[in-house]
């Protein structure tokens, strides 16, 4: 963990937007790998969405990781920072506090309806001037749609527990590792029962569920990169494409191909 923290200190700083000129304002940004946004806050709520890649936003030592179609909601005046471990193209919808009445009062992951990624992609591909009435209407539709989105908390929780963090880091690096809970527990000199207890306490879910979520997150990024279903299944440790498709549909309610068509426009 100490080594990872030192690595992040070596990342290049990208300035955050602090001079926000309108009550409802959208910005799209390409961020290179190994960059970070310093801790900041302002009187605007933020909906942050990644077109390509995975975002990591840190609030009070809680790490929010989210691939599309999930976005991160941050209420106004909330201190936060961001890390881009890999290249990511993302957008932020800034919502002044006077317009946040119907938005959640706590930070978390918003599960968006397909309309929201479609609107954001439309704006991305068809840029309009900020004073264009059509553009302002699109932003209002975005805000109205977000007010109905489901807040699902941190999709992939992290932990400060050293032994459990070691396991999570290992699974991040080797998502195809299909070791049993007992085998993982032996890696950190724990019993299977103790590891299961720590997982539930620290993550709010079983390690099995956490691993499934990790694989879904990795799969969505790979789908966005244009990888085949067969290659994704192999990279994630599945013996067959059908087993991977079953897992993905169970969690996302779409097959991988349906997800790609809905959210990546392909």
TrEMBL record:
Cross-referenced InterPro entries: AraC-bd, Homeodomain-like_sf, HTH_AraC, RmlC_Cupin_sf
Name this protein carries in UniProt: HTH araC/xylS-type domain-containing protein
Residue ranges constituting the HTH araC/xylS-type domain according to the UniProt record: 165-262
Pfam families, per database record: AraC_binding, HTH_18
Keywords: DNA-binding, Repressor, Transcription, Transcription regulation
Highest taxon listed in the record's lineage: Bacteria
Organism: Acinetobacter tjernbergiae DSM 14971 = CIP 107465
PROSITE patterns: HTH_ARAC_FAMILY_2 (PS01124)
Molecular function (Gene Ontology), one example: DNA-binding transcription factor activity
Keyword Transcription regulation among UniProt keywords: yes
Keyword Repressor: yes
